[in-house]
Amino acid sequence: MSSRLNELKEKSRKRREVLAHQLGVDDSEGLTRALASQAERAETRDALPPRKLVKLPSDRASVTAGTSAVVRGTEVAESPTDEKQGGHGSSPVPAAASRNRRQGSEEVELAEKAYTDSSAFLKGTHSENPHNDYCQHFVDTGQRPHNFIRDPTVEERFAEYPKLHELMRLKKQQLVTRSTPPMYHKCELDEFDFVSLDMLFDVILIEPPLEEYHQRSSGMHMKQRTWSMDEIMDLPIEHLGGIPSFCFLWCGASAMLDKGRECLKKWGYRRCEDICWIKTNRNATNGGKNDHLEGASIFQHTKEHCLLGIRGTVRRSVDHHFIHANVDLDLIVCEEPPMNSTEKPEEIFNIIENFCLGRRRLHLFASDTTLRPGWLSLGSDLTSSNLNLDLYRSFFEKAEDKILGFQPQIDELRPKSPPPKAARDNHRGDKSAAGGGGGGMQLPPQPPPVGTQQPMPPHPIGMPPPMVGMPQPGLMPPPPLAHMPTPMWRPAPM
């Protein structure tokens, strides 16, 4: 408990330092004075010496406080006109007194500055008070508004939510114990024989070096050759994904989103989600004003999209052995990579591993910085290879080896999906039929005791009652058992 308290105190201290820097205050005491309440500021004013009265000319009785100032504890009220008339180094009090005697002006008390309109508080101006206008701050400094989002990292995001923090800890512990060793292979993906893998994967992550990145780099040399969406579409992803499976495809800022959907459709996946990466520029050079500017774009691109496609049918409320929905957000906030880099945030791996419990994961266009336990990584940016297909297949020989497994603690803490709308409507109808909308559970009808005679169904008026053992009018007798139709069903695909 003490360590947790110290951690919160340290976080509060850092926030005060950042706020003091933004308000231009030197230390925390100055921040306290700057953020003092109205009552505290009134006490501070009362503690100061009282004002003194100065006689001004009658034609200057309407002078504003912007051209004259009150000096507490003295008998001087300085103004630009008084200084000019008083000469260099001379006190303006005698000049003001002589003018008052000659013109017979009245005694006026200089009040504090009063605002008659909101012109001093308009956005985009040198305001009289601080604004939380992060858009204007971006125009002035180049620092993006999302630089100031609190606790964007995975470690900080759930610090104030004990249940979610414990859920993430248990999931991470499960991954450490159940993940396979990282395997990787250096190859050109347009020449690699994917059939040799002889495996269907639960998750496929594709991070292609798109042509968009080369255009964004303003002619800088790229470390790897760029791929067009047509070349990416020719990859045999449809032969690599199982049923069910998921495909995560990075599509850049905006121009390739439609092409990315076409790729998913061609591979047999349907788009179901869109993960957005919001890029910060806290560490950018020149305050971020001249970095990542594109001449052909209307706006500055500060985001990228990762499309999520699903193959097969997965029900969130039933297939919890394969997926855990609603655990993470569809938003990633982290620092933008260097100009000629195509690296993606590491948090995408956390999102995938927390969502899908399948252990067979494939990463295409991988590099040395993206190697991770539990993943098979392929790409031309890798510097070495350790792929052993026989060893890799041995990790998934049994059916229970293909998923992470069930843990009651994780299942208790994870967010549960609500029941379908039809089930909710039926539940409401059952409660209404029970009377009063609510008390107890509606019990199913119980079968009659063995040996009791069943009541005869009503028969039309004017017709004789049916004889026992004979079929009723309008009803066909049940067919013999040997002629019962065979039910047509198939097991659900795994």
What does this molecule look like?
There is one protein chain. By secondary structure, the protein is α/β, with parallel strands linked by helices. Helix content is about 30%, strand content about 10%. An eight-stranded mixed sheet has the order 3-10-9-4-5-7-6-8, sandwiched between helices. The longest helix has 22 residues, at about 1-25.
Mean of all residue-level pLDDT scores: 74
Amount of beta strand: 5-15%
Q: Which structural class is indicated by helix and strand composition?
A: alpha/beta
Q: What is the count of helical runs?
A: 15
| Element string (H = helix, E = strand) | HHHEHHEHHHEEHHEHEEEHEEHHH
Number of distinct beta strands? 10
